[in-house]
Specification:
Layout: E1 7-10, E2 13-20, E3 26-33, H1 38-48, H2 56-66, H3 73-91, H4 101-113, H5 117-137, H6 162-171, H7 174-186, H8 190-195, E4 201-202, E5 205-209, E6 216-220, H9 223-235, H10 253-266, H11 276-288, H12 294-300
Antiparallel strand pairs: 1-2, 2-3, 4-5, 5-6
Length: 308
């Protein structure tokens, strides 16, 4: 049953309780059948009580269930996390039309003070999308997130040097080496590397649909890329994904970070750190400067045996 005051089930449908009239008789009205869904329920409620969902939490819940269908899978996952971890807890008990633009601006300022400026921007984008959905469904009458200046996020300038990269590569097991090399050589976002399927590998190169632009990127074969992808896909030939963990399963985000922490613990104290996103940026920088050169570096590190 939805967490909406005065809504109750009866005979396979949701009803709205108006309370008792002057004579003491309880009055109610049928809203929608159960199988018509939550969006239809909110529409029916809007006609009876007001043009709003009872709370922002109700609005966010409906958005999660019915308003994310056209978003990319990764965006859907991120938005659900923003709602569950931040937005519902912060704004959930408010009525949608009680949220003012100044409240949203203060939220962004608070997130900046918490050293989460960019996260705040993404959370506000999610909240704005939820209100846009609410407008189309009659759950609210305006979008208070419009016209707010987002936090200015500092661009990362970390460049991973070759020796830093090789330090981790040398200490990592083969399955993690392949993942690290793949992110670098193909300039992949971490989730693009996790989701890369063996069907994307063709004689002409690797076909990748970029998650943000949805454009197709074709990565031509080079000796280093050929080596690491051949090794990665040969480890568990039946696996549908190119990069797999030691058990042949698809990498998860948590497993990737855990594996890197394990490697870091084997390195000398004070060793440099970098993120998977930094590694992608290194690939973009090195490619612009004329090539990756990873295979030569890798051989100099005595990890790859020369072909006889």
């Amino acid at each position: 049953m939805p967490a909406i005051e005065r809504v109750f089930p009866r005979h396979g449908a949701w009803h709205y309780d108006f309370g008792r009239d002057e004579s003491g008789r309880r009055k109610s009205a049928r809203l929608v059948r159960f199988d018509e869904g939550e969006a239809a329920l909110y529409k029916a409620l809007a006609k009876i009580i007001s043009p709003t969902a009872p709370t922002i939490r109700d609005l966010l819940t409906s958005f999660k269930l019915h308003g994310m269908g056209e978003l990319a899978p990764r965006t859907q996952l991120d938005y659900c996390n923003y709602i569950d971890r931040q937005l519902a807890a912060t704004f959930g008990d408010m009525e949608p039309d009680d949220l003012e633009t100044v409240h949203c601006a203060k939220y962004l300022k608070l997130r900046k003070q918490q050293d989460a400026a960019q996260s705040g921007n993404k959370e506000m984008a999610c909240l704005s999308s939820a209100f846009q959905y609410g407008l189309s469904e009659g759950l609210c009458s305006r979008n208070p997130c419009r016209g707010i200046r987002r936090n200015k996020a500092k661009a990362r300038t970390r460049y991973v040097r070759d020796d830093e990269f090789l330090l981790y590569l040398d200490a990592a097991p083969d399955h993690l080496q392949d993942l690290l090399a793949g992110i670098y050589l193909m300039e992949l976002r971490p989730h693009e590397a996790r989701d890369l399927r063996t069907s994307a590998i063709t004689p002409k190169g690797v076909h990748i649909e970029q998650s943000k632009t949805e454009k197709l990127k074709v990565i031509e074969w080079a000796p280093a890329l050929q080596f690491f992808l051949t090794r990665a896909t040969s480890r568990f030939p039946g696996a549908p994904y190119v990069f797999t963990n030691s058990l042949g399963d698809k990498w998860t985000e948590g497993a990737m970070h855990s594996a890197m922490r394990t490697v870091r613990q084997t390195l000398p104290e004070g060793s440099p750190r970098f993120t998977f996103h930094d590694l992608r940026a290194k690939g973009e920088s090195d490619h612009t400067e004329g090539g990756h050169g990873l295979l030569a570096l890798y051989k100099r590190a005595h990890i790859v045996k020369a072909v006889r």
